[in-house]
Each structure stands twice: as C-alpha cells, then as structure tokens.
Specification:
α3 crosses α5, α4 packs antiparallel against α12 and α13 packs across α14. The termini are far apart. The chain is globular. It contains 20 helices and five strands. With 423 residues, the protein is mostly helical.
Length: 423
C-alpha cells in the first residue's frame, strides 16, 4: 500500500513547505485572525506533542485505516483502491498544501479516521443484512444549487411537509451505528451533538454561516465523506491537487455508494422509506450527470443566484473554515478558487441539464426572498403534489422563526466582485 511520511519538503508552488517540527520548536502557533480559544488549543496541542504527552496525529493512509479498523471493530475490513487512493492523495495534499496548524492537523486526522470507520461499519452492516440493498429510493427530489444559493432554505421549507423525508444532521455525519444492528438512532444524535457543540465553541461564526441542529434537515455532505469525496474537504483546506483529481474523476461509482448509504438510513428508520427523499448537497452541481445516472427518476429543483453573490458568500465560508485550521490563509486565492469553482459547476449543470428530460423547476434566490410561497407553489406544481394549508402554516412558522444571526457579513467582509461565468 501507498505510504508516506507526514512532513513535506515543498508546497504546491514548489516553495518550501511549512515544517511542522520547526513550528513546534519555535512556537509560531497562532493562526492569522484566530480566536483566543483557537490559539490556546494550538498551544496546548503543540506542547503535548513536543513533550510526548500525546502522539502526533500521523496523516498517513495506513495509519488512518488502522485507526478506523480499531474504532469500528472491523479488523478485516475491505480496503478498495478507489477510495484508498483518494485518501492517500488527500493526506498528501494536507501535508504539502494546506499549512495546517496543530488544531487543523488534529481535526483532519479525526475527521478522516471517523469517515473511514463509518465506511467500515457500513460495509459490515451490508454484509450482515443484504436486504438493505432492496430498500427503494424512489423519485428523489434533488435540490441543485451552488453553495450559498439558498438551498438550505428550500430544503427546510419542503421538510415541513410530512409527506416528504430528509436527512437529519446526525444521520449525515454519524450515519452508521457503532454496532452492526438495526437501531433507529442509538448514540448517533449524542455523538452529533458533541461534535456540533465542539465546533460552535471553537468557531462561534459557524451558527451564522450554517445554522443547524442535531435533528434539523441537513445536506448529505457527510455521506460523501465516507467515499473520501466532495467539497466538504475543499471548503476546509487548501488542497488544489485533491480538488483537481475530484473534478476530473468519474463520480458515478461514488453516487452508487451514496445510494447505498441512503438505503442504510432508510432501513435503520424502519418506516417512511416510501416517502420521496429531499436531497441537497452543493456538490450535485458538479456531478449532476453522475447523480442522474444513479437516480434516473429524480425530480430537480434548480436554484439560481447572482454568481458574484455566490462567490462572495462561498469565500466567507471557506475563509472562516480555513482560518480555523491553517496558519496561512490567502483571501485572494480563496476568491479566485471559488470564482473558478462556481463557473465550472455552472457549466456542468448546463451540460447535464441539456441531456436530461427529468421533471424540473427553476427557482430564483431573490424571488424567494420576496415571495417564498409563490416559489413553493411552483415546486409543488412540478412535483404534482397538492399544497395544503397545514403545510403552508408550518412553512410560515419556519420563515418567521426568530433569527439570532445575519448573513450580511458576507457582503461586508467580502464585497461582490465582477465574475465572468462560462456561458
């Protein structure tokens, strides 16, 4: 198997890479713009490693796999080259390109070890209960929107309808029970709460950027992580070599795995599998053709927002995440990267849409701001589902809920800039 050391000599530009050992020795630990809590966490971790109180997390694929096997209780789990190679590539990028702080290194190690452990648990569950693969995922309702295009609002409005189903936050990030048995939730909500609480303590802006809760409808980005795939990694770390690989690869096998994970979630719930599933991950805009190949009966909700506003808001989110975990955060690079990313995804959606005859509807961000009910009625017309007053009342309560935070910071901190998108 591929293996490598955890210290790199050059970054993606061929310049000398940040040497972690030297950083630990000279105490250059503070991430630029980092909070006092983050600085303290970095200092404590670096001290613990330097004095051998804790082992340094090794960003090595074999180490990650071994840790995941131990955690999952699956010592003989199958390692397939497809995801293992992506893991190795990601870990190399983290070492050479991401300029991780001690906290960033710890988060990366823990996140990836947890993803692989969940993958091993899923494989064991499918081995013991092969009938899971018979669970239907019929005519999903797929929200196709760029990051920061209003997809969460549309998803949570539709999730007010009990005739539909959705993925909860804890199911996305903790999809598989610790033991291979059929339990509805087990300790998964508790584990999700602990993770969410830790994230909020370290990063108070998290609630502003993406308000959520353990049982809230949320995107399936955690399921993509099990495949070592998707923009969850790109939004946290500067890893251009991994990004290029993901953009160039055939994503259809990943979406076949994605479907299996949805089937596991439906099977664990014991009921409601016959309800249409709301699916929402911004990554869909990059992989729409692959998704439609696996879910040919999808019904699509296309979201539209001014590309410059999408870039500004995406830039704010990525900057926040990278600042938490890196000591070298380049706002200009983040802006240029998300300009490129938004343009690429716009082009791919247009291409996949031209080749698809799936039922669809177009929803404009600003139009939803001014008249959300009209937008909802357009969606339900496409779905051929009657809109009930009871559902509208639930949606209205969602829209009118108290908001303790605002997203105006996106435009204040990251002013809109002209963006040329591919036509």
């Amino acid at each position: 198997m591929f293996s490598h050391g955890y210290l790199a000599s050059t970054n993606e530009n061929g310049a000398p890479a940040r040497n972690l050992t030297a950083t630990l020795q000279d105490n250059r630990l503070l991430p630029r713009g980092g909070s006092r809590r983050i600085a303290l966490a970095n200092e404590l971790l670096a001290t613990a490693w330097r004095r051998k109180w804790l082992p340094l997390p090794e960003l090595d694929p074999d180490v990650i796999v071994a840790a995941a096997r131990h955690t999952s209780g699956s010592p003989n789990s199958n390692v397939k080259l497809c995801w293992y190679n992506r893991l190795a590539l990601l870990l190399t990028a983290l070492e050479r390109e991401a300029s991780l702080t001690p906290l960033g290194r710890t988060i990366a190690y823990g996140q990836l070890a947890a993803a692989v452990a969940n993958r091993f648990r899923a494989e064991e569950l499918l081995r013991r209960y092969p009938e899971i693969l018979d669970v239907p995922v019929k005519a999903p309702i797929v929200i196709v929107g760029q990051m920061r295009s209003g997809s969460t609002r549309v998803q949570r409005l539709l999730a007010c309808d009990p005739r539909l189903t959705f993925t909860r936050f804890y199911e996305s990030w903790n999809p598989i029970p610790r033991k291979p048995m059929r339990v509805f939730a087990g300790d998964r909500p508790l584990r999700a709460w602990l993770g969410l609480t830790s994230a909020r303590l370290l990063n108070p802006a998290f609630n502003t950027l993406h308000p959520t809760g353990v049982f809230q409808p949320d995107e399936e980005i955690g399921l993509h992580s099990l495949s070592i795939f998707g923009a969850a990694f790109e939004a946290q770390w500067r890893i251009p070599s991994f990004t290029s690989h993901i953009e160039a690869m055939n994503a259809q096998p990943v979406y076949q795995e994605f479907k299996r994970y949805l089937q596991i979630l439906a099977w664990l719930r014991r009921k409601g599998a016959d309800r249409p599933w709301l699916l929402k991950v911004p990554q869909f805009t990059q992989d729409l053709g692959a998704l439609l190949a696996v879910f040919p009966d999808s019904r699509l909700i296309y979201l539209h927002r001014d590309p410059a506003a999408v870039v500004a808001s995406s830039e704010a989110l990525a900057h926040n995440q990278m600042q938490l975990q890196s000591d070298c955060v380049d706002r200009d690079w983040i802006r240029q990267e998300w300009q490129r990313k938004v343009a690429l995804r716009t082009e791919r959606v247009s291409k996949a849409r031209a080749q698809s005859d799936a039922p669809c509807v177009d929803i404009d961000y600003e139009a939803m701001n001014s008249d959300w009910r009209a937008g909802v009625e357009l969606i339900y017309k496409m779905l051929e589902i009657p809109v009930t007053e009871a559902v509208i009342a639930k949606m209205r309560r969602y829209i009118q809920r108290p908001r303790s935070v605002s997203r105006t910071h996106d435009r204040q901190q990251f002013p809109l800039r002209t963006l040329q998108v591919l036509q």
